[in-house]
Design brief:
The protein is α+β, with helices and mostly antiparallel strands. It contains eight helices and eleven strands. α4 runs parallel beside α5.
Amino acid sequence: MKSIAKAAIAIGVVAAGAFTLTSISAPARTSNGTKADADGAVSVDDLPAGQATAVFAMGCFWCAEADYEKIDGVVDVISGYTGGKTTKPNYQNVTYGNTGHYEAVLVTYDTTKLDYDDLLSVFWKNVDPFDAAGQFCDKGSSYRAAIFPGTADETQAANSSKQKVATQFSRHIETKVIPRADFWAAEDYHQDYYKKNPIRYRYYRSGCGRDARLEQIWGD
């Protein structure tokens, strides 16, 4: 079952500024060395020295973007889609069309301030690792949590961190570790949603029970 609350907000059910999802395409985007073409495909070939990228799926990408952007050393976060079997994904077909994509974020970070293990720590403290059906109130394959390592070292670090969480709780961890694949930028209205629509964002996040569940799992 998909998240009714998020879908309603994303479609623009609120009278002002309603959106028609089928008419919105992913924008061309350039930010700190990451580039998205007109179809939304993101390239990281032009990153400045001292920067690297990582990809994580944590349920709603609005929340994941907000959670990573508050970390010192994170340069930029792009909301998007990865891990699917089609090209040019958009919110509507990812959420309702069974494309296999995850809602995810592409995190660009300063390697003099953060390393991949730091980003993994942020990831785990912001997901429910026991939920195989989605995250929090959002259910469906696109809302599952996953780590997408891009190198052998990142894969080892991701699996090691997953094992530590399993040992900590003495429970099976549903979060997947999946090789990094193409990343597609989401539609422009999803980018920085928590900044552009703070009231709607806070309403959604609170109503979804995200922070209450995180506190229940991880504590303060």
